[in-house]
Amino acid sequence: MLVCEEAKCYGAETNIWQIVAYCGIIHKARKLAGRFNSTVYGFVTNSAAWQFVRIDNKSTVWTSSDLDNFQIIRERFRTIEIGDKSEDESREEEDEAQDKKGEVVEDRTDLVGSMDKLKISFRDN
Predict the structure, then answer these.
(1) What is the domain range of residue 89?
(2) Which residues fall in a compositionally biased region of kind Acidic residues (predicted)?
């Protein structure tokens, strides 16, 4: 799940907590619905500054300042290709079917999965 917000004011880079709140609402709803994968990604931008958020299945909140190699994340967002809408809908149906079976759903634009493949680490808990 990806959540985005357009910041319409100066100092938007400090408004990261608003997107954390939005992501938290969606994360909680997914948990209450029994979704196996409740990870939520979000970002806020004013087109000059970009701030990223991730809430994982354990409800740990990560922000762009917590992640190493932020440049790679930003480039990943810039290069995500938007596919055919019908293709996106079929992916959602496929993912929902796998969620009901309790299987881990691989998100085809999963930043963390992509970073894991590149052996990029996060802050240790």
Answers:
(1) 2-117
(2) 86-97
